[in-house]
Structures are given as C-alpha cells and as structure tokens.
Design goal:
The chain has one helix at 2-14; strands spanning 25-33, 38-44, 49-54, 69-74, 79-85, 95-101, 104-109, 112-117, 123-127, 134-140, 143-148, 153-158, 168-173, 179-185, 191-198, 201-208, 215-222, 224-229, 235-239, 244-248, 255-259, 268-272, 275-282, 287-294. The chain has 295 residues and is mainly beta. It is globular.
Length: 295
C-alpha cells in the first residue's frame, strides 16, 4: 500500500501539481457556437446575463471598420440580443476586454476605452493618449486599469466612471519589453497581469499595486490572454501558445483544465454554487466554451 501511495504521488508530481494543491477540477465542458470572432466575456450578477465582445466577420484586430459589437447572452450561453451594444448613433470597431460593475460596462476599442450604462445603452468614449492596441480592462475601488499590448503599458484612469467630467489618465506601468494583456483586480489594490511575452521571453503572470512597481508571480508560461484570481488565491489564465485554460495553484506547476482552442481569449468568471463557470471565447473559431469548475 505504501508503494502504491508513493507511485500515485510520483505520478501526480509528474502531471504538474502537488496533490494537496490540485483543488479545482472540471465537472463539465460544453462548446457553443457564437459566430464571428468573440474576444471577451463578462457577467452581470444583477441580471444573470453574460456580455461578449465581438470583432464581427473580419478578424483584423486593429481595423476601424465599425463592425464590432457586444452580445447579451443568458447564463446557459443562449443569445438574447446579438447586437446589444453599441447603442443608437455609436460605433464600435474591434471591442476587446469587457468588465461589468454596478450597472456599467467598460470595453476597449483599439485606442480608447468605452463606458456604457447597461440600462440606457448610452456610452462615452475615452481616447487613451499614445494607445496602439488597447486590450483588457478591469475596475476596482474607483480605479480603471487598461492594458495596451502593443504600446507595452497599463493605463490608470480615475475615476473609473468617466462619463462626467474630465478623468485623470496616466501610465501606471511601461517597463521595457512589456506586453500586457489580461487584467484582474488584485486583493489589497492594484492588478494581476497576464502578458503575451515579457522581458525574458514567454509571457507570464505579474502583479502591481503602485505606479511604476511590478513583481513577477510566475514567468515563462506562454502567450497569455485572460486572467482571473479565485478566492483561494489560485490563478486561472488562458494561453494561446498551448491552446488551453490553465490554473496556477501555489508553487505547483500549472495544470491544464481545458484544451482544444484555436485562440483562447479573455474569459468571464461566474460564481455558481460552490464552484465557478468559466466562459471562454475562442477568438479564432467563433466558439464559446462553458467550463464548470468545482473544488
């Protein structure tokens, strides 16, 4: 029995995680066809709906063709309103990261960030000086964080609700060789950052609390896109280089939770019972993967 236990332990370590840390597991994985090129998903807990940003029929992520939109879905992935946003008289080109809080929806669009009221659909566009590829966005504690992957910077906008008045826009981070993508609020303030690549090569996970200060969580992971932190500190991320959804639990090696993506992009995280629904858009295939996790 001891030899069997030792063998199981060795196999688990070779698989990439300590058995004590391998807490989260997949209980279901459903693939839905959304169409076009979905890039990001966010959930609205109040209405129990999902919102998905979409490039439209043309993939080109920096093409200002006015064909981008945001769809409204129910929690099962059924499309309720394919072109929910933008509202009348407004145009989206290639909306990417989406964040929802207190009845507001933020999304990036090439060189700017939008803030929409979900009830009225009215939105305000805020240009970001020097932006080349505004990518992900998140809001916390009255602050809005926006990543620009090509310009290699993270913008800090205050207040996050910039619909009235003139907000403060400053560059929070811009170290050499920095290509940030996914963002998630950091417990205690600041952000968790997933990078496409960094100063050393393959992208990794970082954290930043203050302007100009950043530390590495884990490097050399791949070409990262979306990121989220679970309540126990485990970090979920999507990786284009390895075509999947991964989890980083403590000091253990990353574990792959779902595979088979063409372009796993910025996912939405929805609490469901004792677990989470991870809604992952596949930017390349036009599919939406609904992965359920439980401890």
């Amino acid at each position: 029995m001891k030899r069997l236990g030792a063998l199981l332990l060795a196999l688990s370590l070779l698989a990439g995680a300590s058995p004590a840390l391998a807490k989260w597991h997949v209980v279901s994985d459903e693939q839905l066809v959304i169409s076009d090129h979905p890039e990001s998903v966010a959930s609205d807990p109040k209405s129990q709906t999902l919102y998905v940003s979409n490039f439209g029929e043309v993939f080109k992520p920096t093409l200002a063709n006015g064909e981008g939109y945001i769809s409204k879905l129910d929690m099962a992935g059924k499309v309720l309103d394919k072109r929910f946003l933008p509202g009348p008289g407004q145009t989206l080109n290639k909306p990417k990261g989406v964040w929802i809080s207190d009845g507001l929806l933020w999304t990036t669009d090439i060189d700017a960030v939008w803030c929409f009221d979900l009830e009225s659909k009215k939105g305000v566009r805020l240009p970001l000086p020097g932006s080349l590829f505004a990518n992900d966005v998140c809001a916390a504690n009255g602050k809005l964080y926006v990543s620009d992957t090509t310009a290699g910077r993270i913008y800090l906008v205050e207040p996050a609700d910039f619909r009235k008045g003139k907000p403060s826009i400053r560059v929070m981070l811009s170290p050499p060789g920095f290509h940030p993508n996914g963002l998630w609020p950091r417990p205690g303030g600041g952000v968790i950052i997933a990078t496409q690549k960094d100063m050393k090569g393959p992208g990794g996970l970082f954290q930043a609390r203050d302007v100009g200060q950043m530390s590495e969580i884990r490097g050399g992971l791949g070409r990262l896109d979306g990121v989220a932190m679970l309540p126990d500190g485990a970090i979920l991320y999507t990786d284009w280089a390895h075509g999947g959804l991964f989890i980083l639990e403590g000091e253990a090696a990353p574990r792959k939770l779902a595979t088979g993506f063409g372009g796993p992009a910025d996912f939405g995280l929805v609490p469901v019972g004792k677990g989470f629904l991870v809604a992952i858009p596949d930017l390349v295939t036009g599919n939406l993967r609904m992965v359920s996790l439980e401890p």
